[in-house]
């Protein structure tokens, strides 16, 4: 039996943000029992709101000859632990595409096949200040969250949001990526700085040969503007609330400065230093960027 992290039990009472309710112990046990990972499988993984959809788009286009096709991204690169909510685990596992492709927000120790298979895992990480802001808007628009930013900030720094603590998630994957050739660790800010280079890095990792035409097709269709205007990528959510931004909200580095008070920034800096002190992982917070 796989242990779903204890902090998934924050249940919306007391203003906490709900962990996706369909990711229960039962779903996790089903995944452990039925999910036979193939060495050819490709997983896009991220802590929520770190650029998961962005990487899904790049991988999808790369494996689909640069063509978007008919499927929305969440079908083309389906969600492992969300399978029960959407197409069902059997359909997810029997997908027609080869290699199979998936996306997930699971913690490292819960991820199917990550220790024993030769499947490929692309992990996207984003600086946690922008991540927190993006997560707040996501919670309001798609998870029915009614709290204020200040309340959400408190939950976020305590790890009382979906998938638990940012730090636990990212640091485990970072450590694992340093010891495995099957995990590519990519940063949102690097993708933002040089998308074309990021596409090349992913292609090299997946051993996909990029000619100039394919490279260009992937890059141009993976910009924020292009994805924001693409209904296959800028997904509508079942319970999306129209007064809040859509999935492609701003797509920038440094937006946190529009939301963090200086007191919140100080608190965050202290927490960040505590969690990151033993790690060589560094993030770009867009300090010098004009927003
Ligand atoms: P913002 O809310 O800051 O705009 P996820 O897919 O993991 O849920 O992450 C969503 C975040 O990634 C959103 O951030 C979204 O705008 C951003 N994003 C998605 N595609 C992007 C792209 N092509 N370029 C830049 N940011 C992108």
Identify every distinct bound molecule in the structure, by name, code or SMILES: adenosine-3'-5'-diphosphate
- CATH top level? Alpha Beta
Low-pLDDT runs of 5+ residues are: 8-18
Overall mean pLDDT score?
A: 90
Given the structure, what is the number of helices? 12
Helix content: 25-40%
Number of strands: 4
What structural class is derived from the secondary structure elements? Answer: alpha/beta
Number of structural domains: 1
Superfamily (CATH H level) name? P-loop containing nucleotide triphosphate hydrolases
The best one-word shape is globular
User: Nearest-angstrom radius of gyration?
Assistant: 18 Å
With strands numbered from the N-terminus, the spatial order across the biggest sheet is 2-1-3-4
> Strand content of the residues, in percent?
5-15%
Tell me about the largest β-sheet. Answer: 4 strands, parallel
| Gap between N and C termini | 47 Å
CATH topology: Rossmann fold
H/E series: HEHHHEEHHHEHHHHH
CATH architecture: 3-Layer(aba) Sandwich
């Amino acid at each position: 039996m796989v242990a779903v992290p204890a902090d998934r039990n924050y249940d919306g009472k007391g203003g906490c943000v709900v962990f996706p309710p369909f990711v229960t112990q039962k779903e996790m046990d089903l995944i452990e029992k039925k999910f036979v990972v193939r060495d050819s499988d490709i997983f896009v993984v991220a802590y929520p709101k770190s650029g998961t959809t962005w990487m899904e788009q790049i991988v999808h286009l790369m494996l689909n000859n640069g063509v978007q096709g008919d499927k929305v991204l969440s079908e083309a690169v389906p969600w492992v632990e969300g399978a029960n909510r959407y197409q069902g685990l059997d359909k997810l596992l029997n997908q027609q595409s080869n290699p199979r492709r998936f996306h997930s927000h699971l913690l490292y120790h819960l991820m199917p096949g990550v220790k024993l298979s030769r499947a490929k895992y692309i992990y996207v990480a984003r600086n946690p200040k922008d991540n927190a802001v993006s997560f707040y808007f996501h919670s309001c628009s798609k998870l029915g969250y009614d709290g204020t930013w200040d309340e959400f900030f408190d939950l976020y720094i305590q790890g009382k949001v979906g998938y638990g603590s940012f730090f636990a998630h990212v640091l485990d994957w970072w450590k694992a990526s340093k010891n495995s050739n099957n995990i590519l660790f990519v940063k949102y800010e690097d993708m933002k700085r040089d998308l074309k280079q990021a596409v090349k890095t992913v292609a090299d990792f997946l051993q996909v040969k990029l000619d100039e035409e394919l490279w260009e097709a992937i890059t141009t269709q993976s910009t924020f503007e292009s994805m924001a205007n693409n209904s296959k990528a800028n997904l509508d959510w079942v319970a999306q609330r129209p007064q809040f931004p859509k999935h492609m909200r701003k797509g920038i580095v440094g937006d946190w400065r529009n939301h963090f008070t200086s007191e919140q920034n100080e608190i965050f800096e202290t927490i960040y230093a505590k969690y990151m002190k033993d790690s060589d992982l560094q993030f770009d917070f867009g300090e010098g960027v004009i927003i």
